[in-house]
Specification:
By secondary structure, the protein is mostly helical. It contains five helices and no strands. Helix 3 runs antiparallel to helix 4. The radius of gyration is 24 Å and the shape is flat.
């Protein structure tokens, strides 16, 4: 393997994930610091503030089970369709050119197979979760209706 190829692989598989983790943790720390600063300023200005109600209003509402399951369905469809489209493009390319280059097939399969696997895993997770969490979703819906 050439030195340039090694640098590209290190950049993609080492540096890029490290930078992504650093950015996400930095963002979360910034959000936490900002919330703490707002809470301290509110406490300093109004000493008889109901802290429990204030923090409840300040925290973002959590996403419902149904919303989380629908996200899994969405990502499952996206990944699965992406993998299927790669194989369809290979099939069309093979029909037009009358042969598919083995290196191209292997290279695109290295993208399509993980995409299909991830997509199918998300879809399985959605359908199993939908069946297993049916009662929890109904209870959550009733709870949300009583709060309104």
């Amino acid at each position: 393997m050439k030195f340039g190829e090694t640098l590209v692989l290190l950049g993609i598989f080492v540096v890029l994930p490290t930078i992504i983790v650093w950015l996400v943790s930095r963002y979360k720390k910034h959000e936490t610091d900002k919330r703490a600063e707002i809470a301290l300023a509110a406490i300093e200005k109004d000493s008889d503030l109901d802290l429990e109600a204030f923090f409840r209003k300040m925290n973002l509402p959590s996403r419902t089970i149904k919303e989380k399951l629908l996200d899994k369905l969405l990502w499952g469809c996206i990944f699965t369709i992406f993998g299927v489209c790669i194989y369809m493009a290979l099939a069309v390319f093979g029909m037009v050119i009358d042969s598919v280059i083995a290196d191209m097939f292997i290279g695109l399969s290295m993208v399509a197979v993980p995409s299909l696997g991830i997509g199918i895993a998300f879809l399985i997770n959605y359908f199993v979760g939908k069946k297993a969490l049916k009662q929890e979703m109904e209870a959550e819906l009733k709870h949300m209706q009583t709060e309104e």
